[in-house]
Here is the input.
Amino acid sequence: MTPAEPVLWECLRNKNLGVRFRGQHPIYDYIPDFVCLEKELIVEVDGGYHFIGNQKVSDEERTYYLNQYGFEVIRFTNEEVLGSIDNVLNKIKEVIKTKEQMAQFADNNPVGTPLLGRGRGRLIIVSAPSGSGKSTIVQWLMREHPELRLYFSVSCTSRMPRGTEQNGVEYFFLTPEEFRQRIEHNEFLEYEEVYENRFYGTLKAQVERQREAGQNVVFDVDVKGGINIKKYYGDEALSLFIQPPSVEELSVRLVGRGTDTPEAIEERLAKAAYEMTFAPQFDHVIVNDDLETAKQETLRIVKAFLS
Here is the structure.
């Protein structure tokens, strides 16, 4: 056990939150930290020592595995639990309340109610030039606000799996020939051939499967892909453009990363200047001149859209 687990368990046990949690309760091949069977909710304190059977797996893989059995997963770090247990408990309470409201809504609405009204997931598109802070904001939103039920779309790629990557978890792995066949059959929402025989794309059918499961699907995509997805789904999708204060500020950020050559930075800046001309085609433009402010503005817009 990590130092934070007994601290959290004292707060979850004996129906302290109004529902019963079980500690180390098995869900098929996996034993999560804390499970509420009544609400199909799992709370994890990540200590870095997790397995399915004898296989060590990542947080994303474990979450995907448990989602397949209908469980929602909330994850906290040891530091979050030990630093502010009240914040942790409030987040768990929010998720429980949301689940109760969704269950009540389902009970009060007949089968004939439109799918969107019955909890069918919605779509959130986030695009930006490289270095604008897009992925940082998206990851913060998904980590800190599980009550929003945000899930990444699972994309396809024609490259080979790396390390412990599994088909259907990080990506769907296709051969270049399979990818081209799906392009011919118009199966992709968006796709790109990064270079010869290296494709990435988003399948329409996969997005619909996630929506039917009640997941609000998040697309962390380039500007071209974001515009294409928005055109396809219209008002069912929210499109956000994360914009740096200026190309000059973006240059400072890219240089500060220390990961690119001067030539690569010049290419990124030229591409960024071009991509910023497409910002008016998005529903909202969020200028990331202060990261915390940009996070809160994104949260406000997403909450309003989902409600």
Observations:
- The two ends are 38 Å apart (CA to CA).
- Residues 19 and 64 are 24 Å apart (CA to CA).
